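Tokens in:
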């Protein structure tokens, strides 16, 4: 990849369809949440919160996914912004991989090393900001 091309999407043959795999896992998880009512439990099942008293960075993620499944985007972002954003990014990625899978291809994202470093820093900052939100919201 050239230095000018910091970010490049492609669909090479033989690539693992990770978007479709993660999408299928999310779909199964959403079905389990809906059928078992896991987004409405009266107690916490977060071990981090049980031991420390503080919510983990993903606390509220199941409830956010449940709200998204019911079309409440604002409620999902209020519950756990990072989990809601992750689900909303996963949906088009999974759909694109399903379409490409019919041709033996899968979506691939290539980034330059410099952009990769910035993306990793951004991911850590997003996780910390999300955690601060979840703690402040008392999830």
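Residues out:
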């Amino acid at each position: 990849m050239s230095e000018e091309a910091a970010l490049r999407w492609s669909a090479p043959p033989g690539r693992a369809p990770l978007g479709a795999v993660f999408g299928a896992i999310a779909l199964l998880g959403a079905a389990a949440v809906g059928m078992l009512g896991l987004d409405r439990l009266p107690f916490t099942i977060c071990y981090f919160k049980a031991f420390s008293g503080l919510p983990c960075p993903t606390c509220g993620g199941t409830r956010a996914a449940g709200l998204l499944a019911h079309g409440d985007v604002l409620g999902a972002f209020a519950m756990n912004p990072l989990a809601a954003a992750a689900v909303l990014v996963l949906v088009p990625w999974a759909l694109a991989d399903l379409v490409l899978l019919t041709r033996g291809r899968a979506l691939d994202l290539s980034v330059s090393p410099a952009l990769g470093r910035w993306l990793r820093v951004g991911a850590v900052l997003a996780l910390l900001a999300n955690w601060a939100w979840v703690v402040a919201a008392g999830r």
